[in-house]
Amino acid sequence: MIRFENVTKIYGNKKALDRVNLEINHGEFISLVGQSGAGKSTLLKLIFGEEKLDGGRILIDDVDIATISEGDIPFLRRKIGVVFQDMRLLQRKTAFENVAFAMEVAGYMREKIEKDVPRILEIVGILDQMHSFPHEMSGGEKQRVAIARALAHKPILLLADEPTGNLDEINGYEILDLLQKINNLGTTVILATHARDLVNKIRKRVVTMEKGKIVLEQEKGRYQLVPDSI
Ligand SMILES: Nc1ncnc2c1ncn2[C@@H]1O[C@H](COP(=O)(O)OP(=O)(O)O)[C@@H](O)[C@H]1O
Ligand SMILES: [Mg+2]
Known about the structure:
Elements: E1 2-11, E2 14-24, E3 29-33, H1 40-48, E4 55-60, E5 63-64, H2 73-78, E6 80-84, H3 95-105, H4 110-123, H5 139-151, E7 157-161, H6 169-184, E8 188-193, H7 196-202, E9 205-210, E10 213-218
Parallel strand pairs: 3-8, 3-9, 6-7, 7-8
Antiparallel strand pairs: 1-2, 1-4, 4-5, 9-10
Helix pairs in contact: 3-4, 3-5, 4-5, 5-6
């Protein structure tokens, strides 16, 4: 589904990604781990088309994303849902409206939106908070809204960049369970996190990054770091 071939990304004179090779298959759940600054977010941004690469190439379903014109970037993004640590919800809209708005932007009709939003909110477990505003919800609940919004346009790939970063441990695990449920429903998931305990619990493919390079790949591994490095 996604293939990185010798991908390099440079900021100033610093290599945020240094000749990264990575292949991700349809339906996979991948955890991308490593310390802050390792290059996790940069890798996700390249997939999403938010940043351009400086070397190598990225293929998504055999299409080199460098050959996609500016005008076609929205079509790429339509295949992808993104969730961030800081959630980025619209504060003056309810949970329902946040998800509905994303569907409107993606061009869905009102009738479809009215029908789908409650279904999506049910999947993420906050149907009963449908009419709550972000300030009325806990961090974990808000992140569920953000995930619902990311799923609104039915992406085939969900990118989650430190989605548990602002949550306590219990809520973090619950969000992780939700991401696994979404993966089980057929969406490919890439989770970027520096949270070692979280990833140890998943026991799915783990890709460890350090200083812009992939230093370890484990099929059902445990997150490893050199002792004392965090
Ligand atoms: N917009 C930017 N401008 C300059 N340097 C950046 C920018 N984004 C990231 N970097 C640098 O690239 C490296 C990788 O960053 P990032 O991908 O955010 O790491 P991670 O998500 O693993 O913490 C870091 O050294 C960071 O400082
Ligand atoms: Mg990051």
